Amino acid sequence: MEENTTLEAPDELKKLEITAESASFEGPIPPPSILAKYEDIEPGLAAKIFAMAESEANHRHKIEQGVLEANRRTAGFNSLSEIIGSVFGFLIGIVSIAAGTFLAINGKEGAGSFIGSAGVIGLVAVFVMGRQKSKDSSEKEH
């Protein structure tokens, strides 16, 4: 003989409601509803939070200004040194080719070939090595 027994829960246990609430915000200053709760905990705390956020923003701006200024100075120096290097390199190349040509025309073909070739080879080597060095340094930055 089988007997089925059903247990009934009291009415107050039949309805179970669970509520979960979550809040989040971005930035240094909480939303007004949360800020008011801070103020309820300790009067003046909201003003301290605003002062802290303002101080942090000022600090961040000073650091960013310093970085921008340093980048400006570095970029200007590199550009100037690159221009000067290119001008002097061009002048050395022209002088060595001209000297080699002059010597070759005046019967010193061996010396003229050597000086002209050495000047051109030296410039090419410096150019290639300079490109490689700048490529390596830019890869290190990224």
Which secondary structure elements does this structure contain, and how are they paired or packed?
Blueprint: H1 11-14, H2 32-41, H3 45-105, H4 109-141
Describe the structure.
The chain has 142 residues and is mostly helical. The chain has one domain. Helix content is 76%, strand content 0%. The chain contains four helices and no strands. The model has no long low-confidence stretch (mean pLDDT 79).
What descriptive keywords fit this protein?
142 residues; mainly alpha
- Average pLDDT, rounded to a whole number, is 79
Structural class: mainly alpha
**Strand fraction band?**
under 5%
Q: Give helix and strand order, one letter per element, not per position.
A: HHHH
Number of beta strands: 0
**N-to-C span:** 82 Å
**Looking at the structure, what is the overall shape?**
elongated
The residue fraction in helices comes out at over 70%
Model regions low in confidence, pLDDT < 50 over at least 5 residues: none
Described by strand count, sense and barrel closure, the largest sheet is: none
What count of domains describes the coordinates? 1
Q: What value does the Rg take, in angstroms?
A: 39 Å
Number of helices: 4
In short:
The protein is an all-alpha fold. The protein has helices at residues 11-14, 32-41, 45-105, 109-141.
